[in-house]
Design goal:
By secondary structure, the protein is an alpha/beta fold. It has 8 helices and 11 strands. The strands form 2 sheets. A 6-stranded mixed beta sheet has the order 4-3-2-1-10-11. The structure holds manganese (II) ion (MN).
Length: 240
């Protein structure tokens, strides 16, 4: 049995093929898994647990079916769906994970993150990230009507520049110094993250120790999964 990691599905009503592939993945490979970790940006947009649309409800129903089947599912916030909260957990049976988090996989401690916090070359984004992760900002945003929240998230109207810009930006790659700091802080030699949509496995030395950074891919044109079992990690694409 393997532990599965995915991220950056960006499920959205406008891209039904992604939802279909996700539901099929949940009903087949994920059913056999030891656990499923979704490392952020499951959804293209999440403006509150009270505002899910039909494609989001379909994905949640698929997760519920998986967790009811006995496969634990863990979800980390991404920069698109950082407002996933307790009602989502109740509906899906999934648990929200803190970012960053060290998970021990088959004896190996692995630092897992969404990855946006590592993109420190984009200072404007990091400022916005700090703003929208603030509890007061989130309370204020969630107090708006669902329609207002959707309009802001979709940048459909001229509203708060902060709100809009937080949802729409070009993704820069990770900063090597931030990667090193994260690994040093966690005391691990392996880092696993998504967000950048640049799937790959990178080997490098840090403080004289061999380190590995594994990056999950997005699901725009195909699926991407990391399968981790007793033989180690294997990054694969899921065609459709
Ligand atoms: Mn992201």
């Amino acid at each position: 049995m393997a532990t599965l990691f995915i991220s950056d599905l960006h499920i959205d009503a406008a891209r039904p093929a992604i939802t279909e592939q996700f539901l099929s993945f949940l009903a087949t490979e994920a059913r056999q898994a030891e656990a499923l970790y979704i490392l952020g940006d499951l959804f293209e947009s999440w403006v509150g647990d009270d505002a899910a649309d039909s494609s989001q409800h379909d994905a949640i129903a698929g997760l519920k079916s998986l967790t009811a089947h006995g496969v634990p599912c863990f979800v980390m916030h991404g920069n698109r769906d950082f407002l996933l909260a307790q009602q989502f957990c109740r509906m899906s049976g999934a648990q929200i994970l803190p970012d960053p988090l060290t998970v021990t996989l088959y004896g190996e401690p692995v630092l897992v993150m969404h990855g946006d916090a590592l993109c420190t070359d984009d200072r404007a984004y990091q400022q916005l990230r700090a703003t929208v992760r603030d509890a007061d900002w989130q309370r204020e945003f969630l107090a708006l009507s669902v329609a207002s929240r959707r309009a802001i998230a979709g940048a459909a109207r001229v509203g708060s520049q902060v709100h809009t810009a937080a949802m729409e930006y070009a993704i820069t790659d990770v900063n090597a110094g931030s990667v090193a700091a994260a690994l040093r802080g966690a005391g691990t030699t392996t880092l696993l993250h998504g967000h950048t949509h640049r799937p790959g496995i990178h080997h490098f030395d840090l403080d004289g120790r061999p380190c590995t950074r594994i990056v999950l891919g997005d699901w725009y044109d195909q699926g991407s999964v990391l399968r981790w079992d007793g033989n180690g990690p294997q990054l694969a694409f899921l065609s459709r």
